[in-house]
What does this fold into?
Amino acid sequence: MTRMLDFAARTGAAALAFYCSAAAMAQDTAPDAGSLIGTAALPRDLSPWGMFLNADIVVKAVLIGLACASVLTWTVWLAKSIELVVAKRSARKAAALLASVRTLGEAIERARDAKGPLRQVLQATTVELALSRGSLDHDGIKERIASRLERLEAACGRRILIGTGLLATIGATAPFIGLFGTVWGIMNSFIGISKSHTTNLAVVAPGIAEALLATAFGLAAAIPAVVIYNMFARSTAHYRALLADASAEVLRLAGRDLDFEAGMSPVSSRVANLSAAE
It folds into this structure.
C-alpha cells in the first residue's frame, strides 16, 4: 500500500512539472496582445483631409492642381451660362423684329437703339448696299451681303466659344493627371513596404488610399468639365442657328428692297444716318 501511494505521488509530481513547463513554453511563444493591437491599428487619419495632409508632396501638388481645375470649370460654367442666356435672348429679339418688318429701311428705323448682333447685321448689310450703289447685278449684291453675314455669324460664334476650350482641356487631361498621382502614391507605398519589411495592411493601406484619392479628384474634375463642355456646344449651336435666322431675314429684306428699286433711296439715306450715329 505504501509503495502504491509513493508511486502515485511521484507520477503526480511528474505530471505537474510537465504541465508547468508546457504552460511556460506557450507563454513564451504567444505574441503580445498589445503588439497585435498596435499592428492592426491604422497609424493615420484616412479622412480625405487627413490623407491630403499625410500625402507625398507630388500627390499634394496633383490634388491641388485638380482642385484648381475644378474651380475653373465651375467658374467658366457660371460666366458662360450668363453670357449665353443674354446672347440667345438678344438673338431671339432680333429675329422676331426682323420677321415683323417689310423693308430693310423699316428694320433700321426700329433697331436704331439696338445693340449686339442685330445692329451688327444691319450695319453690315447697309454698308454693302452703300458700296454696291449703282450696280445692276442684284444677285451679286445678295451674294456679297450673304458672305458678310456668314462671316459675322462665324465671328459671333467664335466669340461666344471663348473659354470653353479650357473645359475640353480639363476634361481630357484631368483623369491622366489623377492617374499620375495614383501611380506615384502606389510607388511610394511599395517603397514603404520594402523599408518596413512587412506587407501588413496597416502599413500599406494609407499610401494606397492617398493614391486612390488622386484618381477620385481627377474624375471629379474631368466629368463635370466634359458634361459642361457638351452643354455649351449645344447651346452655342442653338445661338448660331438664331443668328442664321436673323441673317436670313435681313437677306430677304435686302433682296426685297433690291427687287423694288424704290426701296433703295430710303435705305441709302438711313445708311448715312447710321454711319453718322456711329
Notes: The radius of gyration is 40 Å. DSSP finds ten helices and no strands in the chain. Confidence is low (pLDDT under 50) at residues 15-20, 22-43, 262-269, 271-278.
